[in-house]
Write a structure and sequence with these properties.
Number of strands: 12
Strand content: 35-45%
Helix content: 10-25%
CATH class of the largest domain: Alpha Beta
Strand order of the largest sheet: 7-4-10-9
Distance between the termini: 40 Å
Number of helices: 3
Structural class: alpha+beta
Radius of gyration: 18 Å
Largest sheet: 4 strands, mixed
């Protein structure tokens, strides 16, 4: 059943987020304004080395007041492809230069309220280039064995949806076990 859109108006906007009210009509005929959060798209990098370890960062997220492991990720800049963003974010956030990059999976994590697209990439290895240039992301960067990821998820040590999508996809892939 398809909802119809009759218009949209911005309520708030800045370079990171746009809050809109969308005039929608549901299949039963009811018409109302629906809140939609329009976000820039995200690129996520699952860097895996020859030892079947994945490059992760220990992050604090003030919004949820929580600590957890995450993959390198960032917003796609204007004029940049999601693949370029993934490589750039790995270097900026971890100090590693990405090896070959290929698409892994695509996700829309909360498409009932936001249009955010998550482009997730598998990066085959990385070479250390120096300290991270992004100083506000993490001061703990580690290669974590893929064999430990399931337990970390179960213990809520990995909670970011972008990281979960990538890691669960890797765990389903026979070539990574």
């Amino acid at each position: 059943m398809e909802w119809k859109t009759h218009g949209e108006r911005q309520v708030y906007t800045n370079k990171w987020v746009n809050l809109c009210l969308v005039d929608v009509q549901q299949p039963d005929g009811r018409r109302w304004e629906y809140h939609v959060v329009r976000l820039r798209h995200l690129a996520v990098a699952a860097v895996v080395n020859d030892h079947q370890e994945v490059l992760m960062m220990w992050r604090h997220r003030f919004i949820t007041s929580s600590w957890a492991w995450e993959l390198p990720m960032g917003l796609v800049e204007e004029g940049e492809t999601p693949e370029e963003t993934a490589g750039r974010e790995v270097l900026e956030e971890t100090g590693y230069r990405a090896g070959p990059i290929k698409p892994l999976v695509y996700a829309e994590p909360a498409n009932g309220i936001t249009d955010s697209q998550h482009h997730v990439f598998h990066i085959n290895g990385a070479s250390y280039a120096g300290p991270p240039t992004e100083k506000n992301e993490s001061d703990r960067i580690e290669w974590i064995p893929l064999s430990e990821i399931r337990g970390m998820i179960d213990r809520k040590e990995i909670v970011s949806s972008a990281s979960l999508v990538a890691l669960l996809y890797l765990l389903m892939d026979e070539s990574f076990r």
